[in-house]
Amino acid sequence: MHAITPRWMTLAVATALAATAGVARAEPPDEARTLLDGALAEIRAQGLDKAVKGFNAGGKWKTDRLYLVAVQMDGTVLANSVNGKLPGHNMLDARDANGRPFVKDAIQVAKTSGSGQVDLRWGHPATRRLSDATMFVRRVPDQDVYVGSLVFK
User: Fold this and answer.
1) Which of 31, 75, 76, 83 sits 20 to 30 Å CA-CA off 14?
2) In a domain? residue 6
3) Residue 13 lies in a domain
4) pLDDT single digits (tens) 133-148
5) Residue 15 covered by a domain
6) Taking the complete model, does pTM exceed 0.85, yes or no?
C-alpha cells in the first residue's frame, strides 16, 4: 500500500526548501558587498601595496560572477582580480557597451559620496559575453583610490 502525502505537507516541505536555499548562498549584491568589505579590511591590515598584490593574484578575490578592482582617482588600474593585463593601464576614458563612462562614474561616486554603485554592461569573465553588471564602489580611506566589486546579473 502506498502512502499518500497530504498536499499541505508537500507545500510545507517545498516552502522550507526554498527558504533554506536562499540561506545557503547569498544573493549576488550581498556577495559583492562582502567582497568589498574584505578588500578594505585587507588594505587596513596589509597596506595598499601588499593588498593590491593579493587582489591581482585572484584567488578569493573573484568568483564565477564577481571580481574586484582597485583604481586610482586618475583612472589608473592598480588591481583587477580577473585580468592581470589591466594593472598599470589608465581606464579613465573607458566606456561600457552602452557608451557609459563607468570609470569616471565610479570615481565621481567615490569622491562625492565615498561609496555607491555604478551599473554597466561589460564582458562577463566566465562566459565572455556582454552582460549587465553592477559595480559597488568605496573610496579607500586616506587614499586617492577606490575599490570596486563587480557583480554580473
Assistant:
1) 31
2) no
3) no
4) 999 999 999 999 999 9
5) no
6) no
